[in-house]
Amino acid sequence: MTETAPPLLPAPAAPPEPGTSGRLLARAAFLTAVLTVAGALLGLLRDQAFAHVFGADTDTDAFLVAWTVPEVAATLLIEDGLAFVLVPAFSLALVGRGRHAGPDPVRALVAATLPRLMLALAAGAAVLIAAAPAVVAVLAPGLPATGLAVDCTRLTATCVFSFGLTGYCSAALRGHGRFLAPASIYVAYNVGIIGLLLPLGGAWGVRAAAAGVALGGVLMVVVQVPALWRSWRQREATVALPAARVPDGQAPRALRLALVAPVVVFALSRQTQVLIERFLAAPLPAGAISHLNYAQKVAQMPMVLSLMLCTVTFPVIARALAAGDTERARRRVESDLIVAGTIVLLGASVVVACAPEIIQVLFQRGAFTLHDTDATADVMRVYALGLLGQTLVGVLARSYFSEARPLWYPACAMLAGLTATAVAGALAVPVWGAPGIAAANALGISLTALLLLWGSGRRRTALSVRWVGGQLARLVMAGSVATAACWWGATLTPSPLSALVIGSVFAVVAFTATARLLRVREFCLLFRPVTRKLWHAR
Question: Most Cβ neighbours (<10 Å): which of 178, 299, 481, 502?
Fold first, then answer.
């Protein structure tokens, strides 16, 4: 029997939107995309500068152990944890505006949450600074440069406070429909790191990069304060997100343990995959942690680009669910899954086929040698196998936590994937070394993605799992063909840059032709104006 896509007609219960809504959402998506790309490019420039100045040795391994702190803090406080709790909370607060003549529910939510959060963040940063030696011993037992890692950890520990405030500001602004300032945070962050790394790297060593992380965290807060202040001074919402009504008694809630705990467990479990990698790589030859880090940063670029649309649609889904319009939310999530899968699989095909050329063009200079290029490329190709799983987890997690109520299933799915990563990594490292760690990561996150996709068909939004799975399978086939075409195109020239350009062109052409041949229903969304992608959210 021929597969049929879920209906795309507007839900009958959906109220008409003002004519400016689609244009505002399109503008938000465009600005988010531009600033996401800018932040990613600055991140690459940061990594290039780091590789050029320090290469890959015991000192860089020590810094990357300390780098675990901002990585965990970013996941828990900016990208996943606080966002999953606060975006729906602010969305509900905005929905409740105008229903009563009493206090502004948005300001009431801020008063109930921000002071307590700041106190908890300050205490957490202080504890981490004091316990830095123990943290390093747990994260990387046997690391040669332990003292250097402790110094860097104490500098990066300040991110617990600054990243927490950054995440709070970002969630509040996105809940208000303001996306420009939140999208610029990683631009500010990388500017802070590069601004200290380049002039002070020679004198301070990798401590300059750690100090840059601390400075970048402060800049992430600073760039959002003006927009946040303007938003909180206004009584009415400033962007035409879907209109909604909520029953009395569903006022926005403060950060309660029962609400926050599932999100915290999910976010920590997701980031713990990185901790497992560092732990398993610590006894390997010097530079192994650095090779894993460079490979992961570059390989995840397609995933970062694929998830930028979800940053804009997350509050849209939350508002739709607050209004009880599950059909609109379902259509939005299904569309996001296919569009994000298209972007990440096209990018993964280039990463797999041209991994040596990418690393050579980006990093092979200064202290970063040909040996480092080969080792990093080997790891990066294996990491790319888990990119689709990473993307699906990112999209589906947002849909699970849009309902602003405790959901333990995502956390349990993430714990299952984490267990698979740990077991597979312990078995693979003695045989394959660093590539074995990357393979375990891909296995664990893919298992989590499958569990989340299976469970999404049994939720209130009830995604069409069979249809989505069929579309993703077709995209995987298109990605496989694109990988082969890219690989062949890269062999036509000895120049790494030319090989990368030619291979990428071949990949795009092959992916497009194969996806159209396989009749991927929503593939055309990638080549249409952003407003067409966001139309279903109206």
Answer: 299
